[in-house]
C-alpha cells in the first residue's frame, strides 16, 4: 500500500496515477482517541486505518498529478538522521578537504536530529536560503517507525517499521552544527508517499538514483549502507524511545551536489516510486 498526505492535510492511498481520498475513514478512527503524548496520531493507529480502508479502491479517486503531495507523516516526534553512512560519501567529503583529518565515522559520531519544522512534502518543494553558500542535496532512503520501542535489538528492528519513503536531507555546507545547517524550513523532504513494509522484502536491497535537471547525481544502493536499517533502528533506540511516525534518514550516498533556485530534483526508486522536487528561492511571507 502506498499511503500519502496531500493538499489540505488529506490522507490518501496511491494506486497507479490516482489518489483515493481516505480522509473521512482516517478522521473517524482518530476521533475516538486522544492524540498520543509523543508521535504521529495517524501512525499510532495505522493498523486500524489499513484495516478500515483495505486497498483504498472503494474511496473516491482523483488524478495524482492534480494534488500537492505533503510529507506522508504529519507529526513525528523527531526526525532522526545518520551522518556518514556510505563509505563512498565519506571518501568524497574527505577528498574536498585533504588537509583536514578525516571526519568521525557513524560509530563514533552517532546520529543527529533535524527540526520537525523542516519537513516538506515532494509537492511543496525546497525553499533555498543563503544563496551565496553551498547548498547540496542528499537523497536518502528513509525508515518510518510504526511501533513504539526502546533498546530494540537488531533482530527485532524491522518489527518496529511501518514502511519506507525517500527523503532529501538538504544541507547548507559550513562550520555550524549539523542540526542547525540541516533544519532550515523545507530542508527535510519526505515522500513522495509511504510504502508499507509488506511491499519491501529487504530494505537493505534498494537501488535509488537522483537526477538534477536530468543530470545523474546519486546512483546508490542501500546494500552499501555502513549501518544497515536494522542497525540504525537499534542504535537510535538505544538513545531515544522510537514512536510511531518517527523517521530515520539513513544517510547520504556519494554524489551530493549543489542546487540553485529553478533546479528540479528527480528521484528514481522502483521500490518507492518517482519523486520530483522543485527548488526555489526562499521568500519571507512576513508572518
Ligand atoms: Mn544526510
Integer average pLDDT: 96
Q: Mind telling me the C-alpha Rg?
A: 18 Å
**Distance N to C terminus:** 38 Å
Q: Helix proportion of residues, in percent? A: 10-25%
Just name the CATH architecture of the largest domain.
Answer: Alpha-Beta Complex
Spell out the helices and strands N to C: EEEHHHEEEHHEEEEEEEHEEEHEEEE
Label the structural class.
alpha+beta
CATH superfamily of the largest domain: Fumarylacetoacetase-like, C-terminal domain
Question: Could you name the CATH topology of the largest domain?
Answer: Fumarylacetoacetate hydrolase, domain 2
Number of strands: 20
User: What is the CATH top level name of the largest domain?
Assistant: Alpha Beta
Structural features, described:
By secondary structure, the chain is of the alpha+beta class. The protein folds into two domains: 2-69, no CATH class; 71-281, Alpha-Beta Complex (Fumarylacetoacetate hydrolase, domain 2), CATH 3.90.850.10. It has seven helices and 20 strands. It has helices spanning 23-31, 41-44, 46-53, 87-96, 106-109, 178-181, 229-239, and strands at 2-6, 10-15, 18-21, 61-63, 69-70, 79-81, 112-114, 119-120, 126-128, 135-137, 139-145, 161-169, 171-172, 188-196, 207-212, 215-221, 247-249, 257-258, 264-268, 275-281. The strands form three sheets. Strands 1, 2, 3, 4, 5, 6, 7, 8, 11, 12, 14 and 17 form a twelve-stranded mixed beta sheet that branches. The protein has a five-stranded mixed beta sheet with strand order 9-20-19-15-16, with no helix packed on it. The chain has a three-stranded antiparallel beta sheet with strand order 13-10-18, with no helix packed on it. A hairpin with a 2-residue loop joins strand 15 (207-212) and strand 16. It starts with a strand and ends in a 6-residue tail after the last strand.
Amino acid at each position: 500500500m502506498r499511503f500519502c498526505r496531500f493538499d489540505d492535510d488529506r490522507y490518501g492511498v496511491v494506486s497507479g496515477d490516482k489518489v483515493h481520498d481516505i480522509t473521512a475513514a482516517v478522521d473517524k478512527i482518530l476521533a475516538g482517541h486522544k492524540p498520543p503524548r509523543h508521535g504521529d496520531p495517524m501512525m499510532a493507529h495505522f493498523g486500524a486505518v489499513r484495516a478500515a480502508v483495505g486497498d483504498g479502491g472503494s474511496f473516491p479517486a482523483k488524478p495524482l498529478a492534480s494534488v500537492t503531495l505533503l510529507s506522508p507523516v504529519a507529526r513525528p516526534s523527531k526526525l532522526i538522521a545518520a551522518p556518514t553512512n556510505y563509505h563512498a560519501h565519506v571518501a568524497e567529503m574527505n577528498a574536498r578537504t585533504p588537509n583536514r583529518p578525516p571526519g568521525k565515522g557513524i560509530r563514533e559520531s552517532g546520529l543527529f536530529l533535524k527540526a520537525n519544522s523542516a519537513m516538506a512534502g515532494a509537492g511543496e518543494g525546497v525553499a533555498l536560503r543563503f544563496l551565496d553558500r553551498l547548498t547540496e542535496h542528499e537523497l536518502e532512503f528513509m525508515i518510518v517507525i510504526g511501533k513504539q520501542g526502546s533498546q530494540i535489538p537488531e533482530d527485532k528492528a524491522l518489527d518496529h517499521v511501518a514502511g519506507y519513503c525517500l527523503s532529501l536531507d538538504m544541507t547548507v555546507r559550513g562550520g555550524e552544527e549539523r542540526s542547525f545547517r540541516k533544519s532550515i524550513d523545507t530542508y527535510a523532504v519526505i515522500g513522495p508517499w509511504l510504502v508499507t513494509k509488506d511491499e519491501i522484502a529487504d530494505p537493505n536491497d534498494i537501488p535509488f538514483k537522483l537526477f538534477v535537471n536530468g543530470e545523474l547525481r546519486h546512483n546508490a544502493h542501500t546494500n552499501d549502507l555502513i549501518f544497515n536499517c536494522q542497525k540504525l533502528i537499534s542504535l537510535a533506540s538505544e538513545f531515544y524511545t522510537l514512536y510511531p511516525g518517527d523517521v530515520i534518514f539513513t544517510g547520504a550516498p556519494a554524489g551530493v551536489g549543489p542546487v540553485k533556485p529553478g533546479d528540479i530534483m528527480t528521484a528514481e526508486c522502483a521500490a518507492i516510486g518517482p519523486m520530483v522536487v522543485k527548488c526555489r528561492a526562499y521568500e519571507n511571507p512576513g508572518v
